[in-house]
Amino acid sequence: MPHRVGIASRCRAVAAPAGPPPPGVAERPEADVVVIGSGLGGLCCAGLLARYGQDVVVLESHDRPGGAAHSFDVKGFHFDSGPSLFSGFQSRGPQANPLAQVLDALGESVPCASYDSWMVHVPEGQFESRIGPTDFLKVTTLCLYQDALVIVVIFFLQDLETYVGLDATREWQKLLYQKRSQDAVIPISAAAMALPPLSIRGDLGILSTAAGRYAPSLLQSLIKMGPRGALGATKLLRPFSEIVDSLELKNPFVRNWIDLLCFLLAGVKSDSALSAEMVYMFAEWYKPGCKLEYPLGGSGAIIDALVRGIEKFGGRLALNSHVEKILIENGRAVGVKLRGGQESDKQSRLLSNSR
């Protein structure tokens, strides 16, 4: 979802006469909204703005769109550069994948193949990773947590124990559920699951987008969790690495595996992945009947669909358009300067999805 998107004062993206525009810049650079970066967040933002009547241009430094989610081909083989664990593209309603909701609003869809396991090749060995409460798990128990019956999957993964050791297995169990701990995934998952995925964000804006609209269900979950549980739930707005550190997980394989899952889900490591997103996905993965979905054509197929949606509603994408500097006046962002020297005027809104 959108990553570090900021809105500034109005600025108009008009190429200045200082030099020719970079290759790939849209023919009509004027826009109501200038979006910097064509990652998933930038494209979703631009698509929805275009859908609701805004004139939008997306400025992308690379020669292809997608950011961390772009795809590329080498000698006939297709590769994803970032996130590749997806689910919920076929779902609808408040609990649907936010990306699926954006595509639906744009009148686009992405065909997917469903699966519930994948092969893992690591230095320690090769094993099959599964989701869902299957017999691949050695133990599944029911426990009563603060008057709420939840399925706690004690993840004694046979291959984890075989290739890494019992210590790693214990730490994985500790991550999912640890008695008297409010930092483990299961205890705080109730708060994450009480909110629709689209409302989850990593700043105080969640007070308006989530708590204001979904206060009853959120309050009910926090009451069931108790005071300590509610306090632990505040970590949902922090990086997932803070939960990992608070549980004192030391095993190198476990920490690397967590970083890998964060990257496959969000394109970043655990120190940049939002805890709410990771906790939600962990809880979602072990529900009965849960499936993952791989877009046919890879993550690039998602990017292509978003670009089609933007262009369908009159938005534009300008590749090879590196934003060298965000122009600041009186403490506010008022425009951009491109690598070729072009500067925007000060008439449209500016949104930055860059890192």
Query: Secondary-structure element sequence?
Result: EEHEEEHEEEEEHHHHHHHEHEEEE
Apparent shape: globular
Structural domains: how many: 2
The counted number of beta strands is 15
Mean pLDDT: 75
Question: Beta-sheet strand percentage?
Answer: 15-25%
How many helices does DSSP assign? 10
| Spatial order of the strands forming the largest sheet | 1-15-2-3-12
Helical content band: 25-40%
Rg computed from alpha carbons, rounded to a whole number of angstroms: 22 Å
Low-confidence stretches: 1-23, 134-156
Largest sheet entry: 5 strands, mixed
Distance between the termini: 14 Å
Topology:
Layout (H helix, E strand, L loop, with lengths): L5 E2 L25 E4 L3 H12 L4 E4 L11 E4 L2 E4 L17 H8 L6 E4 L1 E6 L2 E6 L6 E9 L2 E10 H6 L2 H11 L8 H9 L12 H28 L6 H7 L5 H15 L8 H11 L6 E4 L3 H14 L3 E3 L4 E7 L2 E7 L10 E4 L3
Parallel strand pairs: 2-3, 2-15, 3-12
Antiparallel strand pairs: 1-15, 4-5, 6-11, 7-8, 9-10, 13-14
Helix pairs in contact: 1-2, 1-10, 5-6, 5-9, 7-9
Summarize the model shown.
This is Putative all-trans-retinol 13,14-reductase. This protein is α/β, with parallel strands linked by helices.
What would you note in describing this structure?
The protein is of the alpha/beta class. The protein folds into 2 domains: 6-77 and 298-352, FAD/NAD(P)-binding domain; 136-288, no CATH class. 34% of the residues lie in helices and 22% in strands. The protein has helices at residues 40-51, 98-105, 158-163, 166-176, 185-193, 206-233, 240-246, 252-266, 275-285, 299-312, and strands at residues 6-7, 33-36, 56-59, 71-74, 77-80, 112-115, 117-122, 125-130, 137-145, 148-157, 292-295, 316-318, 323-329, 332-338, 349-352. A hairpin with a 2-residue loop joins β13 (323-329) and β14. It is globular. The relative contact order is 0.24. This is Putative all-trans-retinol 13,14-reductase.
